[in-house]
Each structure stands twice: as structure tokens, then as C-alpha cells.
Amino acid sequence: MKSDIKIAQSAKMKRILAVAESAGIEKNYIEPYGNYKAKVKMSLLDEKKGHEGKLVLVTAITPTPAGEGKTTTTIGLADALCKIGKKAVIALREPSLGPVFGIKGGAAGGGYAQVIPMEDINLHFTGDFHAIGAANNLLAAMIDNHIFHGNKLQIDPRRITWKRCMDMNDRQLRFITDGLGGKPNGMPREDGFDITVASEVMAVLCLSSSISELNKKLSKIIVGYTYDGKPVTAGDLKAAGAMTALLKDTIKPNLVQTLEGTPAFVHGGPFANIAHGCNSVAATKMAMCLGDIAVTEAGFGADLGAEKFFDIKCRMTGLKPSAAVIVATVRALKMHGGVLKEDLKEENLEALRAGMPNLLRHIKNVTGVFKVPAVVAINKFPTDTKAEIDLLKELCEAACAKAVLSEVWEKGGEGGVELAREVVKLCEKENDFSFCYDLSDSIEEKITKIVTKIYGGTGISYAKSVEVKLKTLEEQGFGNLPVCIAKTQYSFSDDKIKRGAPSDFKVNVKDLKVSAGAGFIVVYTGDIMTMPGLPKVPSAENIAVDKDGKISGLF
User: Fold this and answer.
1) Helix (H, G, I), strand (E, B) or coil at 177
2) Nearest to 487 by CA among 337, 302, 222, 356
């Protein structure tokens, strides 16, 4: 079997203008970046206003090292919808260089369900992440420059909350001291870096539907506090205009294609474990205004990406999902049931039964808490046995959830036709889409509802400093914002070794931060880090380029 990158490199791509034409995008809205990718002007949203296709979210069970295939399923489903006569358009996140060179590898799908050009998408693409990093770091530079030149705003250097960022895993930069070398080189202070996908600039960009909205949200970003405790914003520093200038092209969604020529917007990329985990609102709206069905995804398991998609993105924008797909694999469920990765090739029905509560909790959350109809997509691996697949279907049926075999990795759209038909059925029904909490709830009530209703926990344990921040944020008028919980992706709890569907646990909240520009409060739990580190053997070690510039080992 060919590797993902070899499959992608052997594909015959359509010219991007032909892809745009098939999507119904006139030539004057397209800004090509070479022959196979392009930016799409934001004015298209006004031109196509009035048509709104159905919105389908693809989410998944709690991830394991065994793999789930959420992006692969998203792409294969859209290709399959096209095969059964529906006009489908995809909206995905852009991959971060951190995971590409770290532990995960590429993030453009897999097998015969990929978006292409795969190498471009996984590497620099159209430069979006570089522009976001530049805007973030311009703001950081303007903070320190303001302090250096007299500090008219009376910013307390000990209470600066804004960090620099870079799109790479580098644990060495989590905590640093800068401004060393004497008075000409600034004021020495403790500082640090986030990965670019955790930057509030990324969140702001992804939640903005126009340049004017982007500028307004950027100006609200809180960068720190004065000596007497008042918040200081990017607007106070007069930084928002220059930041918007850096992002004026970045806000335009990127258009590419699948291996089968289905139009795909790949735009924005916040992680779902440390940010809100959804592609840009602009890309999603474009996909909806162009297609019968827009297929999108949200990062990691449904407790993270899907919860934030529903409670933050849909709430802020008025989007209403018509259906959800929950991706599961026999391998991952057996791992949740206690099987080691090296033993997953062996049939093990008991382990599959033991791991099922993880999937069932995700189904219950999507259909019961958020009231979105869902189908389970069983992403088939070659080692799956008929008995295992039959048992998985049987257990889903017993829980009143339909499970459908998906073979898109091996067969492309053809392998997802049954799944596509089931999704169409779900989209034809009305639903009572709801949120997990009300905005009128206190910050503590919002966190508690997510922990108890979504994670299955019993409550929350707060660090003493957090209790003070809870009160302060409420007093400052931020109590009506949604919450974005930063938590390990490997467990419903904040302890990554608790697989399956743990219960009788408390989530440990160690810090809070208001992202006033993005419009939510970030809740940091457990040992979550906003700057990941590289693993012992990073994926970067396997990547090479030949004399003709052809890349190998990317995935």
C-alpha cells in the first residue's frame, strides 16, 4: 500500500480556477497562489447571501495512539456526498508545523481521502500562520516598547499576560527571561512563548467574518494590567490597525481540492485542547453558501472540539448544525478497553466491550446534551475482524445509535457512500440544537456544567489564585462570556492516563485568562501546556527532500 504522501504526489490535480468554477465561485473572487491553491475574497459572502446549505460536523471519540481518522472521514464523506448527487464543500483547519514535525505528522487526511497539494498544506501553505505569528509578536513588541519609552499607560511588567508565539513545538521557550543586557535592551522580565495555534490572534481571526470585525476584536485583546489592576488592551496601545494590516489577506479563506476534486476550504487552525479547535467562520460560511451540504470538523474528541464548536462557534455566529458524525475505530476502542498498542492486531471482543463506554458517552453528549442527530462512522483498519465490526455495530444499535462502516481511507468517496446516505437522512430532519450552558450562568456554573454533563466528572477543584480571578472577572463584566476549557485530549478527565469513560473525578482548574478579543474565557486544567514539546523521536527526523525538491517522510 502506498504511503499518504505518495498517493498525494501521484494525484492529477485540477487547476484551482477549475475547482473554483465547480464550486460556483466566479473568477473575480479568486486570488491564485500558484496553480493549485488560492485565496477567496471575503466579498463572496455578500454575493452568495441567501443560500445556506446544511452543516455537518465530524467529531470523534477520545483520541489514542491507535488513530481515529477524523479528517480522513471528513474528506471521504464529502467525496461520497458528491458521488450520490449532493454538492458538498469542505471546511477544515490548517495543520500546525508543531505536530507536523512532532508526533502526529501531516494533517491533510490519509489514504485516498486527502486534500491536496498535501505538502503545501502541511508546510507553509499560503503563509497564514506566519502572518498570525507576526501580528501576535508585533503586539508583544509594542507592549515592551511602550514600557521602555516611559510607560504612559502604567503597565505593570509583572502582570503582562500577552506572550510571544511561534508555530513550532519548543518546550525551551515556555518560560524565559528577556530584556537582559542593560537599559538600552529593555526592561528585564519573565516572559514566555505559546505555539501560534494557541494565540488569541488565531482565535480572533477564526471568529471574524469581516476585516472590520477583525479589527474590532483585535482592539479588545487584553495584554496585561496596570499597577492599580486595570486591564490594558491592544486598542490602548494603538496596535490593532497594524495587526489588521498584517492579517488583511490572511482572513481570506484558502481554497484547495480533494483527491477527487471536491472543493475544500482549509483555513485557520486553533488546537482544540488549548484553544477552540475550529476552522474559520468565514470558511464555514463560504462552504455553506456554495454547497448543499458543508462538511466540517472540530479537533480531538467530542468533549473538546465538538463542545467548543457548539458552545462557542455556533453560539457566536448563529450557525445551526444539521447532523454530526462521530468517528470511532475498533483499534482505539480496544485501547480504551486496556489493550496495548502492540497487541491491537489481535481480535479482542472483550476489550472492545470494555472500551465502548467512551464512544457511548460521546454519543450521549452530542445527541442528548446538544440534541444534534448523529451517526457513528467506523473507520475501518485492515486488522479489524468481522466479529469486531459486527459487535461494534450491535453495541451502537443497543444504544439507539446507528453505526456505519467507512472505508474512505482505502476506497476514497466510494468507501463512504453508505455513510453519506445516512448523513443525508439526518440532515432532512429538524433538530432541537441546544447548548450545554446558558451565557447568564456564572463562570463557575459554566465550567461545572461542562465537567458534569460532558466529561462525566463530579465537580471542580480550584487553585486559590483561581478563586480570586473568578470573582475579579465577574466584577469586570466578563461573566457573560462562554468558556474555553484547555484540557488533555487523551481523557474525559484532566488526567491523560484515564482512558475509557472515567467517573468520580474532579477537574483541577489551575488558571483562568480572559480572551476579550476572541470573546471567551480560557480555563486551564491539569498539566496542560500552551507550548508543546517535541517527542523523543520527532517526525522531523524522517523527512527528507531529494535533488528535485520532492519531499518524502512527511506522513
Assistant:
1) strand
2) 302
Q: Going by DSSP bridges, is the β-strand pair 222-226/231-233 parallel, antiparallel, or unpaired? A: antiparallel
Per DSSP bridges, beta strands 113-116 and 254-258 are antiparallel
310 is catalytic: no
Element (H, E) at 295: strand 293-297
Angle between helices 386-398 and 349-364 (to 10 degrees): 40
Q: Which residues pair with 378 in a beta bridge?
A: 328, 405
Closest to 208 in 3D by CA, of 253, 251, 147, 171: 251
Catalytic residue among 14, 48, 104, 453: 104
User: How confident is the model at residue 84, as a pLDDT?
Assistant: 98
pLDDT at 552 over 90: no
Active site residue 300: yes
Contacts of 46 (CB under 8 A, 6+ apart): none
Residues in the chain: 555
Annotation says 125 is catalytic: no
The owner of cell 507592549 is: 143
Active site residue 72: yes
Strands (E), 387-475: 403-406, 459-462
State the Cα–Cα distance between residues 128 and 123, nearest whole angstrom.
11
The yes-or-no answer on residue 162 being catalytic is no
* Predicted pLDDT of residue 105: 63
Query: What per-residue confidence (pLDDT) applies to 161?
Result: 96
How far from 443 is each of 200, 204, 456, 471, CA to CA, in Å? 19, 21, 19, 9
The C-alpha cell that represents 278 in the structure block: 475550529
Catalytic residue among 125, 162, 265, 300: 300
Q: List, for residues 351-384, the tens digit of each pLDDT value.
A: 999 999 999 999 999 999 999 999 999 999 999 9
Helix (H, G, I), strand (E, B) or coil at 64: coil
pTM of the model as a whole? 0.95
Helix or strand holding residue 444 (H, E):
helix 443-449
Q: For 520-550, how does the pLDDT look when each residue is reduced to its tens digit (9 = 90+)?
A: 999 999 999 999 999 999 999 989 999 999 9
Task: State in Å, rounded, how far the first CA of the chain is from the last one.
Answer: 14
3-state SS assignment for residue 368:
helix
CA geometry: angle 3, 272, 289, nearest 5 deg: 80
State residue 5's pLDDT score. 84
Rounded to whole angstroms, the Cα distance separating 333 from 352 reads: 6
Query: Residues 11, 38, 140, 272: which is the catalytic one?
Result: 272
User: Which of 436, 441, 443 has the alpha carbon at shortest distance from 471?
Assistant: 443
C-alpha cell at 517: 478579543
The CA distance from 298 to 375, in Å, is 16
Alpha carbon distances (Å) from 336 to 103, 230, 332, 499: 20, 47, 6, 5
What amino acid occupies position 276? H
The verdict on whether 93 is a catalytic residue reads yes
**Containing H/E element for 120?**
helix 118-122
